[in-house]
Structure prediction request, 173 residues.
Amino acid sequence: MNQENKKIVKNYAFIDSQNLNLGIQALGWKIDYGKFRIYLKEKYGVIKAYMFIGYMPENQNLYRSLQEKDYILVFKPVLKDHDGKAKGNVDADLVLRAMIDLDEYDKAAIITSDGDFYCLVNYLYEKNKLKMVLSPYVKTCSSLLKKTAKEKIVYMDNLKNKLEYLPKQKNTA
Prediction:
C-alpha cells in the first residue's frame, strides 16, 4: 500500500483528571503525565488529549506543565463543599466536548472510573466511536461503566513501570 492510501488515525482522549489522579493514588503511586501522554499517542493513536480539570489559581505551574506535555486543558471552576473540600465536577464538560468533536475524531479514549459517563460510553460504543475506556483502578471502577464499555475497558493497575513519576535524583558527587 502506498503512502497516499494510508489513512491517518485521529483518536482523541477525554480525561477526567481528578478521577485519574485519585485512582492512581489508590494504587500507591503517582502518574508521570509526560509518559502518560506519550503512552496515549503510541498505544492508542491519540493525537488530541483533553484534560478536564478544576481551576485553582495556585496551580499555575501544574497547568503550564500539563500544557507543555501537549494536553488541552478544559477548566472547571472549583467550589468548596460544606466541609471546605475543593470540588470541580467536570462530567458535563467532558461529555459535551466529546459530542461537539464527534465528527473530528475516529475513536475516543475515555479516561475515568466514574459511572456517570456510562451514557457517553454507551453512545460511543454503539456508534463504533469508542477506542476504549482506560480506568485507573479496577477496584474503584464503576460496575455500570464496566458493563457499558464491555470488552473495550482497560485498567491501569499494571502500568506502574511504564507510567510512574520518578523524581529526579540529585547528584551527590
Q: What stands out?
A: The domain at 8-163 is CATH 3.40.50.1010 (Rossmann fold). The longest strand covers residues 46-55. The mean pLDDT is 92.
